Each structure stands twice: as structure tokens, then as C-alpha cells.
Amino acid sequence: MEIQLEILKYIQSFHSDFLDHFFELITLTGEETFLVLVFSFIYCCIHKDFGYRLGFFLLSNVIFNSGLKNFFHTARPIGKLGITSLRLETATGYSFPSGHTQVASGFWMMIMNYVHKKWMYILGAFMIALIGLSRLYLGVHWPVDVIGGIVFSCIWFVFINVSMNYAEKTQKSLIFVLIFMILGFIIVMVRGVNEIKMFGCLTGLFFGYLIETKYIHFKIQGNLARRIISWLLGIITLILIKYGLKVILPSNNISYFLQYVLICMWIIAGIPFFFINIIQKNN
Q1: Among 36, 159, 224, 237, which residue's beta carbon has the most beta carbons within 10 A?
Q2: Does residue 54 carry a pLDDT above 90?
Q3: In a domain, 166, yes or no
Q4: Does 49 fall in a domain?
């Protein structure tokens, strides 16, 4: 632990106002708002199947990380002598493995695997390293937390992609039941509000997929500008839905679950409905 403490002190010795703002910005790329926007944009505007897989992977990876944190029960470096911790609102729960690093590195692994180009591998590796470094610079994680986040993200990346490839080839949806059972067990074990929200998102993702594949069958077509406009309309409506539900529903775990079920159902089935009405009919 002393070696890790010295590493943190060394990294923070380069402190400046510019780097504070820079790394606070970088760490945003591992947070809910950024990832939801990117995954929904890819799903609606770039590639539907990959977007869905990316969303499933990201949400399940968040829950997997929460289970790991509560299993290892590791304290953060916050409050240690000589360590300055910034952006504390993002440093909730236990320390190992780093949630921002695990989720963001998983995101870039998925993007690298999809694009499959040398330049994207370089960019992805750079961003993973930068996000990990941001958590150290901000003084909210130990070096081992960052390494652990990358390692466990690799494990989950392989597990989810192998499982989904198998399910697609064999048409055996029972593998998704198994994954939901694993994640549901983690929710019961952790019982955190954030985990309940993420499980609600996964449930909404699943039911949204059923609705979209049975009734909507949207295809990504039309020029990019029209696609982006339709996506933006969907996101604006999503924000209204989110805050409307927050006002209407009481503040308890059941309400949080229902809110996020509806939010993800809107992303998967609601926003594509805009595509059919605005793009396909106009074309």
C-alpha cells in the first residue's frame, strides 16, 4: 500500500488547474450520461445490432463491477495524508476495482472490436490508459483498482461476446436467462440504488428489444443529418420522460426500477419509432 500511495503522490505532484479540469473531463467518459448518449446514438444512427449489444454489455458491466466492489470491500485513498481527492461525487462505494475504468475500458474494447482498425486500437488503448490515469490523478482510486478494472472488463468482454455470439448462432435465448440470473443475484447481494437502476435499464433493454423486433423493425437509413435530428428528438423526449417520472413516482427502489425500465424501453423501441415516422415515411 505504501508503494501505491507514493505512486499517487508522484502523479499528483504534476497538479495544475488545467490538469484538474482536463482529468475531470476525461473521467466523464466513464459515467452514465456520456455512455447512454453514445450507445443510443450508435443504436439509432450507426448500427442497430451493435448498438444493442454495446448497451447490454455496458449495463451488465456496471452491475458486475458493483458485485466485485462489494465482494472485495476495499477502502479508497480518500483522506490519506498527502492525497488530494477531486470529484468526490463520482467516488461512491468501495474502491476495487475502479468502476469508471472498468466500464470505460469495456466501452473502448467494444468499439475497437467493432471498428477493427489499427488506428482505433491505438486510440482505444490510449483512452483506456487516460481514463485510468484520471482516476489516479483525481485521488479516488489506488493503482491496483485501475489495473483490476481493466482486467475484469476484459473478462466480462469475453464472457458477454462469447455468450451473445453463441445465442445468435444457436437461437438459444436461455443464455440470456442465465446472465440475468447472475446479475439478479448481484443485485440481491448489493441492494444498492444504482444497481437497481442499472438492472431496470437492462430489463427495459430486453423488453424494448422484444417490442422493436416484433412490431417496429426499424432500419437505419436516410442521410446522417436526418438520423441525428431524429435521435436528438428522441433524447429530448427521453429527458422529459425521466424528469416527469421522477416527479410523478415516489422515491423508492420500485420506482427507480420502473423509471429506468421505461427509459431504456424508450431508447430501444421509442426512439426507433421516430425513425419510421420521420425518416422512412419522408423518403
Answers
A1: 36
A2: yes
A3: yes
A4: yes
* Grid cell of 179 as nine digits: 446472465
CB atoms near residue 3 (< 10 Å): 9
The pLDDT > 90 percentage for the chain reads 35
For 200, the domain range is 193-276
Closest CA to 272 of 197, 224, 209, 202: 209
Give the total residue count for the chain: 283
User: In terms of pTM, does the model score above 0.85?
Assistant: yes
Under a CB-based contact definition with an 8 Å cutoff, are residues 57 and 157 in contact?
yes
Shared domain check, 149 and 76 = yes
147-156, 183-192, 244-253, 264-273: range with lowest mean pLDDT: 183-192
93 and 169, same domain (yes or no): yes
The CA angle 246-53-117, to the nearest 5 degrees, is: 125
Q: Is 64 exposed, middle or buried (0-12, 13-18, 19+ CB in 10 A)?
A: buried
d(CA 45, CA 230): 9
Residue 177 burial by Cβ neighbours in a 10 Å radius (0-12, 13-18, 19+): exposed
What sign for the dihedral angle of Cα 40, 245, 65, 175? negative
Q: Which amino acid is at 220?
A: I
Comparing CA positions, the residue from 267, 262, 282 lying closest to residue 236 is 267
pLDDT band at 181 (very low <50, low <70, confident <90, very high): low
Last residue of a domain, one of 134, 163, 191: 191
